[in-house]
Design goal:
138 residues; mainly alpha; 5 helices; 2 strands; globular
C-alpha cells in the first residue's frame, strides 16, 4: 500500500442500505468510467486479482478506499466482513457475527424484480442459507 492518499473520484456514488461493498465499488467504477474493478481498486492502492474478496480482508484498506470513493469511513467499514473478535471462523455481518461458511462471495445471485426497482447487489443475496430474496420473495 502506498503512503500517499488516493485521489478522490470525480463522481461519488452513495451506498444504499443493505448494499454490498462490491456493489458500491462496481457502481463507483462504472460512474467514473472504469471497466476493470482490479484496475479501479489499484488507484486506491488495493492490489487484488479477486475484487469480490475485498470485503473479507483485514481492514487495512478501509481508510484509503473510503477516501478514494468519497465516502465516510463507516460507510465502508459496515460493509466489510472483518473477522470476529472471538477468534472463531466468523465474520462481522452488518452488526452480527456470522460463520464465514454461510457467506458466498463468488456466486452472484440476484432477484430480477428487486434489481428492476433499484440496480444494486443486496447483501442478503450472499447468504447461502437464504434461497430467496426477502425483498421480492423471488
Amino acid at each position: 500500500m502506498n503512503n500517499d492518499s488516493p485521489r478522490p473520484l470525480f463522481t461519488v456514488v452513495a451506498p444504499h442500505d443493505g448494499e454490498t461493498l462490491l456493489s458500491v465499488i462496481s457502481r463507483s467504477a462504472e460512474a467514473n468510467v472504469h471497466v476493470r474493478l482490479s484496475a479501479f481498486l489499484r488507484l486506491a492502492y488495493i492490489d487484488t486479482k479477486k475484487p469480490a474478496f475485498v470485503p473479507f480482508t483485514r481492514g487495512q484498506q478501509i481508510q484509503p478506499l473510503a477516501q478514494y470513493m468519497g465516502l465516510a469511513t463507516d460507510a465502508v467499514t459496515k460493509r466489510m466482513h472483518l473477522p470476529s473478535d472471538d477468534g472463531s471462523a466468523s465474520v462481522e455481518w452488518y452488526g452480527t457475527s456470522l460463520p464465514r461458511r454461510f457467506i458466498d462471495a463468488e456466486t452472484y445471485r440476484f432477484a430480477p424484480e428487486s434489481l428492476s426497482k433499484a440496480s444494486y447487489q443486496r447483501a442478503q443475496w450472499m447468504l447461502r442459507p437464504l434461497s430467496f430474496c426477502a425483498e421480492s420473495m423471488e
